Amino acid sequence: MKNLVFLVVDHLPRQQRGGSMADQEEPKKEVRVFGRPELASKVAMFQKKAEEHDRRQKDNPFSARWDGAASAAMSKDDPRYGHPEEGSKTDKRGKQAGNLISSEVRVLCENLHEFGVELPDGTRAITFGELFQLYTSISNKVVGILLRARKHGLVDFEGEMLYQRRDDGVVIRLLRPIADIHREMGYDPALAQLPKSTPVLLSGKKE
């Protein structure tokens, strides 16, 4: 005879009316499982995730379940202020976007270092027209990448914005040695140029 599994649902006492919307919600249900201990642990884990999701929704001002009274105020001096919660999907997407931007800025600086002309002060420079022609086969976002690189103090040029043809003669300078830029970004060119391992069959012969 197969083991029977019983689910017992207990209604928690209803909270008093009045106060925030969260206080007037339906009472939570506590699920207790009899007959299979492993299933009970899974149910408990699911309940924990559901409660954590509910807490995040109450702290999220864009959620219909937001509870301003329950949401803890965060000081502007807190390093987490203005940033998504650590480990959330928004946090992961932000980090991925940040990595992509860093990669694009690094490639820009590498091109300035390789194709630019060395100046007496040790910096390198290239005109916007030359850089634009170089980037037609690399990226169509060269102006945006230049603006980000200038914001981080890596390059410099005159004007708030650059336009093709009109600003072809504007000189763009790489302000820092490429080795320093690589070091700051945690990028090692030697590791990036290592050949990929050749797949080997079980027989020992190469594919």
UniProtKB/TrEMBL annotation:
InterPro entries: Abra, Costars_dom, Costars_sf. Residues 99-175 form the Costars domain. Residues 75-94 have a biased composition (Basic and acidic residues). This is Costars domain-containing protein. Gene3D superfamilies: Costar domain (1.10.10.1540). One of its GO terms (biological process) is positive regulation of Rho protein signal transduction. GO terms for molecular function: actin binding. Residues 68-96 are annotated as: Disordered. SMART domains: Costars. GO terms for cellular component: sarcomere.
